[in-house]
Amino acid sequence: MSATVKSEAQRGPLSEEELRKIHAYWQACNYLAVGMIYLQDNPLLREPLKPEHIKQRLLGHWGTSPGLSFIYIHLNRLIKKQELNMIFIAGPGHGAPGVLAPVYLEGVYGEVYPNKGEDEEGMRRFFKEFSFPGGIGSHCTPETPGSIHEGGELGYSLSHAFGAAFDNPDLIVAAVVGDGEAETGALATAWHSNKFLNPIRDGAVLPVLHLNGYKINNPTLLARISHEELDNLFKGYGWIPYFVEGDDPELMHQAMAATLEQCVAEIQRVQDEARRTGIPSRPRWPMIVLHSPKGWTGPKEVDGHKMEGYWRSHQVPLSGMRDNPAHLKMLEEWMRSYQPEKHFDANGKLIPVLKALAPAGHRRMSANPHANGGLLRKALRLPNFRDYGVQVPKPGQIEVENTPPLGKFLRDTMSRNPDNFRLFGPDETTSNKLNAVYEASKKTWLADYLPEDADGGELAPDGRVMEMLSEHTLEGWLEGYLLTGRHGFFATYEAFVHVIDSMFNQHAKWLDISEDIPWRAPIPSLNFLITSTVWRQDHNGFTHQDPGFLDVVVNKSPTVTRIYLPPDVNTLLSVADHCLKSSNDVNVIVADKQKHLQYLDMDAAIKHCTKGIGIWDWASNDQGTEPDVVMVGCGDMATQEALAATALLREHFQNLKIRFLNVVDLYTLTSASEHPHGLSDRDFDSLFTVDKPIIFNFHGYPWLIHRLAYRRTNHRNLHVRGYKEKGNINTPLELAIENEVDRFSLAIDVINRIPALQVAGAHAKEALRDKQIECRNYAHEYGTDKPEIRNWKWPL
Amino acid sequence: MSATVKSEAQRGPLSEEELRKIHAYWQACNYLAVGMIYLQDNPLLREPLKPEHIKQRLLGHWGTSPGLSFIYIHLNRLIKKQELNMIFIAGPGHGAPGVLAPVYLEGVYGEVYPNKGEDEEGMRRFFKEFSFPGGIGSHCTPETPGSIHEGGELGYSLSHAFGAAFDNPDLIVAAVVGDGEAETGALATAWHSNKFLNPIRDGAVLPVLHLNGYKINNPTLLARISHEELDNLFKGYGWIPYFVEGDDPELMHQAMAATLEQCVAEIQRVQDEARRTGIPSRPRWPMIVLHSPKGWTGPKEVDGHKMEGYWRSHQVPLSGMRDNPAHLKMLEEWMRSYQPEKHFDANGKLIPVLKALAPAGHRRMSANPHANGGLLRKALRLPNFRDYGVQVPKPGQIEVENTPPLGKFLRDTMSRNPDNFRLFGPDETTSNKLNAVYEASKKTWLADYLPEDADGGELAPDGRVMEMLSEHTLEGWLEGYLLTGRHGFFATYEAFVHVIDSMFNQHAKWLDISEDIPWRAPIPSLNFLITSTVWRQDHNGFTHQDPGFLDVVVNKSPTVTRIYLPPDVNTLLSVADHCLKSSNDVNVIVADKQKHLQYLDMDAAIKHCTKGIGIWDWASNDQGTEPDVVMVGCGDMATQEALAATALLREHFQNLKIRFLNVVDLYTLTSASEHPHGLSDRDFDSLFTVDKPIIFNFHGYPWLIHRLAYRRTNHRNLHVRGYKEKGNINTPLELAIENEVDRFSLAIDVINRIPALQVAGAHAKEALRDKQIECRNYAHEYGTDKPEIRNWKWPL
Q1: Side-chain half-sphere CA neighbours of A333 within 13 A
Q2: Nearest CA of chain A to the CA of B81: how many Å?
Q3: Can you give the pLDDT at residue B4?
Q4: DSSP characters for A638-697?
Q5: Are residues B340 and B488 in the same domain?
Q6: Fewest C-beta in 10 Å: which of A59, A140, A643, B250?
Q7: Is residue A604 included in any domain, yes or no?
Q8: Is residue B604 a part of any domain in this protein?
């Protein structure tokens, strides 16, 4: 294919004049990129470069920049020619100079940041502030107009691109994939996203593998395998690879122009056919391999070392300019080789004949509203979550699986928002008992079908449930979907959400920064349901036990993080409704899928979730007085065991005054000064007392509670129980016993904490221990918990 | 290829008798797998199945099990025939029945667990305890003889396999990759590991993609693309795929036997040639696609639904046996279809003619010492780390980059252990300033070379530095290397070690369990160097700032986790030496690569690291008395700023008595009852006082210190400063100021905490604030910190 394209390219499609202009535009971009990396003054080279024009520290990466600009401006040509609706995703790390340059030249940068406009002073600031303290980042940070993908951590460009393309039939997302980035796991599997893209309903993704051969100090794998292997690889991934290879700018401009035209024509042909026939089969989508030198057009050789086309030009090809006049001269020659005097007018503005090459208005990729997705955000049309609740006439009497009603709520949310909401989960939607959604929409599937799929396959090309066994890809899709203004919900096993810790970190940082950028409109929140929790891994064992994602979440900015642990169906519904209405947050909901006791009717649930924490009067007997002990449950299983402990204590000590608290909103525990949801100290003290023992039964690792509450008055009496890496294949009660969060351990804990019970309680403690042993023995004998445990109810 | 193999297969290579025997052995395996899932009694079906023979809960996965056994016993055939040295890695989740069955039949299970030996009672226990509380896990857990790969979290089978093969020229690692698992990012990029395997020095990996078509409720992607795409994909990844496809056992036995012979012959041919010629070029290694039905040989149809070959047989094909006599009958028929009465003798032991099919002794994959790598562990021949130290005549006077001396220590470690030690890092060894190692050994590279590689490429087919831009693959390789008894060291950027949070979790859990398994010998520790830390991201910005890996680490068992923050070169060397000598731990060392002040000479460093925490007398002026305040530094940058704050305070308040502490071993802060390195309360109190303010300057998120120290006497006076998600592109001091860990903020903090200074300190606070503002303004003007900050020394 490459040979064909190349020979065609040499003939056309660019006229001589077009060729001259596009090359001049590219020179202007490259000039800016070098200027950003090196200069703090003399931006138009009005005088010979002097040491004081050079920044003290040289940062930013030249290597990938010319290639990024090259792609960007060739896309511009096609956008303009065909009035395309396109956005640009830059995968390569530190490639911002190659993106910021065309963004500046098409005028958007100066529109957004008027002090860096299209004049000499604007250019000087633009150069100086790049990769400078307090200035412009070297990735495509949230401050970059037109960016939905920072690229600070590598691997997510392609899945972000697909997320942006879903339900945007008119949009083409150009995704430049760095060949370093291509080695990451997240990227390597994201190529398979083409099995989830529907040519009728969705837009297109046009990946450009930027094969410039080197990472920081290493060749890239994909640049060092045979052409045949590379070709096979992408064909195997289901793409048609088009190769644009070389270093001669003239030939490369022609080849790129021809190849892009061919790819876009192919995309349009495929879409037109699918949309005309209504048959959404999986096409082999086109993708481009752009094989060009690292640091293209930069110095060929420096101090006897190969520079262009080698890893040495990955970052900064020339350095030490302040002490090395030869290098300073080379830099000036290099910059002048781009002929700035021809491309910029006397004021430093791109000359009109080149300005005319860029698209206008919202067609400029840096001004496309899809890349500032909050602008396009439509509120979800939500059904009334109250309609999905369970009847709870008396607390703690019936058992219901907690997630299926949520599944129905999500089902109807999906029906009402047929182009604006998707559910994501790694092959676990049914396992997590949310399968009611399939009544509204099936699982997206554009790969092959077999006859048996008709019986329970739940697959459809127009499905809206996204399932692939890659948390990375799902999270990337969802982020791309949210960043372009749509809504989503991610349900996953608790232990394995850690697979995307780092993706969460990066997205939370993106949101945190975005909150301070006035022109970025808020986007829908990233909503996680963490289920199949640590406590119900009856046969999955130790590897599946890890409630530590919350510990990762609390490290991120309190302006964007929220954590909820609803104990039953109605609280889960209320919380989910709240999360789906919110924006610019990461909401983490922890709720198990198995049967659990139901505590609150819908009105009580709403009230409880609104406060986030509260006394459960029906489980407390300290009414109107100070309690002897405060018992707290946070999380479904933790709440049940804390309640059962309360009941056991009441049996043994009728006069013991126990206050029972339940925590739904984890951040209520921290100070109001630390998090917007934090309780005031006065409110905290009135709930937790200032001097009574608190037994806090927590869903997760116990230390997290200390971390949140260590400044509270009564912290010294706070005794937290939670998961502490004990257990393996266990019944629920047995796992609780191993980690001392079971009813018996908690009740004994209370007795130990109350001086008045030290003597009177000895007999009770013995009885509780005996019972605990009996229960454990039963589990080992019969493989399940005793019926009296399994069927336990709150005693009325 | 598949057609050729198939037609050959129909003719041979198995004689009729061989075919009959191997099929019988497979039937015995399948019988055991079904028995494990269903039965708690009547293991040999001596009487018709009754409801009480069936377990209360049916757990474990049937779907993948017959395929796993099929592969296992065909490998056995070749091991025996050719005396191969092989181990088996089972990637598919919950596939343990398919592995435990042949492990039991070859006698190893009973040797290791005598109460589950080869007789009726042993088999009964073996069945009953599978996936039963307190019993045998449904993954290949550490308790499984012959396993180095649990598979509880998917995606790491192939990288583990490569890690095991490195430096084991005689070993073939058979790695079964589940087709669900194949969708994960970690697995998708691990196929490229073949560019890092040297046919002379290393063993071979024989991947078998177990294409049985389904995950929990979904088809797998690789089963639903065209044969041509699948073939291209693996060719593109650099493998030669051999297809074994079908469901007829007879044909499949012949095809598998033929294909395995061909693959092993190809492996041997490639190795022989490379070893004969001494030319280690990259061959196209063989791999197998085993396309067989999910739940192969199980019920074809249940209640009108397709079962064999569909997702419905992923877990348990038949259920409700206690209430459904028809299902109970089907189960019995299914089990009897394997003809147990023919294969097991009256006592329940496999008949001798079948027993003879398995290899003997250590050739049994379940008894191969490589899979209990601690048995083969040789201590590293370490150079004397003292020889790499820096001279520190006076504390805090000279600046040295902290990591390069470690690089030299690692270089000589590598030289002295030419087949027993490797260094791992994602394209960052030079960036992390460990590049001295290249003097001992280059980067492993079996992909293509270009002429320019000769100038600074540092590539070699026999390199021992492993670099690929996939933290997942590196971590997987390293784990595989350690689990087979060799040593390694992983250096990586701090923010991006989160990419492998979950892999760390799984490995730490493996170690934790292994410590309680008497027959598992301790393996070398997993050593991380976390560098390019949060505090020195001058141009990388916000995305590169995350010191939260430590928060993930502390959630894991204290028996296997260790965290060190050496502040300078000599402490770093002392800590690294300790880590390289340890076993069964995960050691996390945090140390920045940039220039830092040097504090301790080698003797002092060793003493300090041995204690893990201590008073720095030279920086304290409370000698022999109770201090007014305790200042603590933990981490390189944190220590420097805390020292500078101490110096500032001394300038302003000559009589203020400051005790300066430095913490290297983070776990000293926690109670001795919580971690083996925890200080006793008495020791803690004597260092931290019981009532004086403590200003604790920490490298990471500040709450971690509270989490560790919340039970200590003086916790109420503990004020921790650390990273709190503030900053972006900043100079080091500016970033510190943003997060209030800088010298000025700390000094002001101290003044605020000491009542006696409330009035006297007002002027000093103002001066400190002015200076802080001046420093920040300078950074924004010049792009670097003021020289007086950059060149700050401890005042003598």
Answers
A1: 11
A2: 35
A3: 42
A4: HHHHHHHHHHHHHHH-TT--EEEEEESBGGGGSBTTT-TTPBPHHHHHHHH-SSS-EEEE
A5: no
A6: B250
A7: no
A8: no
List CB contacts (< 8 A) between B455 and chain A: 305-306, 310
Q: Which of B601, B528, B541 is nearest to B571 (CA)?
A: B601
Percentage of chain A modeled with pLDDT above 70? 99
Which residues of chain A make contact with B216, given a CB cutoff of 8 A?
427-428, 430-431
3 state DSSP class of A360: coil
Task: Specify whether A332 is located in the same domain as A397.
Answer: no
Residue with tokens 């297809």: B243
Chain B residues touching residue A501 (CB < 8 angstroms): 498-499, 501-502, 552
Q: Is residue A407 part of a domain?
A: yes
**The two three-digit tokens of residue A524, written as one number:** 């829908």
| Type and span of the H or E element at A553 | helix A549-553
pTM of the model as a whole: 0.97
Each residue's pLDDT tens digit, A360-371 = 999 999 999 999
In terms of CA atoms, which chain B residue is nearest residue A132? Answer: B783
Cβ of A238 and B229 within 8 Å? Answer: yes
Among B613, B627, B630, CA closest to B665 = B613
Mean pLDDT for all residues in chain A: 96
Residue of B nearest to A435 (CA): B217
pLDDT at A660 over 80: yes
**Residue in A closest to B500 by C-alpha:** A499
Q: How far is B386 from chain A (nearest CA, A)?
A: 30
Instruction: For residue B713, give every residue at least 6 positions away whose Cβ sits within 8 Å of its Cβ, in sequence order, or none.
Output: B681, B684, B685, B688, B690
Q: What is the mean pLDDT of residues A107-116?
A: 97
Please tell me the predicted confidence (pLDDT) of residue B540. 86
**Co-location of B579 and B672 in the same domain:** no
The last residue of a domain, from among A596, A628, A653: A596
For residue B154, tell me if it sits in a domain.
Answer: yes
CA distance B637 to B533: 10
In angstroms, rounded to a whole number, what is the distance separating the alpha carbons of residues B224 and A446? Answer: 9
In terms of domains, do A351 and A407 share one? no
d(CA A51, CA A325): 8
Q: What's the CATH number where B257 sits?
A: 3.40.50.970
Q: Assess whether B530 and B636 both reside in one domain.
A: no
Residue of A nearest to B782 (CA): A56
**Minimal C-alpha gap between B541 and chain A (Å):** 7
Instruction: State how many domains chain A has.
Output: 3
pLDDT, block means (10 residues), chain B with 796 residues: 44 91 98 97 97 89 96 98 98 94 98 97 97 92 98 96 98 98 98 98 98 94 98 98 97 97 98 97 97 96 93 88 92 98 97 98 98 98 98 97 98 98 95 96 97 95 97 98 98 97 98 97 98 89 96 98 98 98 98 97 98 98 93 98 98 96 98 96 98 98 96 96 95 96 98 93 96 95 93 94
A260-293 pLDDT, tens digit each: 999 999 999 999 999 999 999 999 999 999 999 9
Show the domain range for B88: 2-371
Q: Residue A417 in 3-state DSSP?
A: coil
Flag if B185 and A188 touch (Cβ within 8 Å). Answer: yes
Chain B CB contacts of A431 under 8 Å are 216-217
* Chain B residues lying within 8 Å of A454, measured CB to CB: none
The span from the CA of A703 to the CA of B554, in Å, is 10
| B296 and B433, same domain (yes or no) | no
Q: Tell me how close the Cα of B427 comes to any Cα of chain A, in angstroms.
A: 6
Contacts of B452 in chain A (CB under 8 A): 306, 309-310
Q: Residue B703 belongs to a domain with what CATH number?
A: 3.40.50.920
Model confidence at A624, in pLDDT bands (50, 70, 90)?
Answer: confident
Which of A189, A311, A514, A726 is the best residue to mutate to test the B interface, defined by the most B CB atoms within 10 Å of its own CB? A189
Residues B546, A555: C-beta atoms closer than 8 Å: yes
Q: Which residues pair with A496 in a beta bridge?
A: none
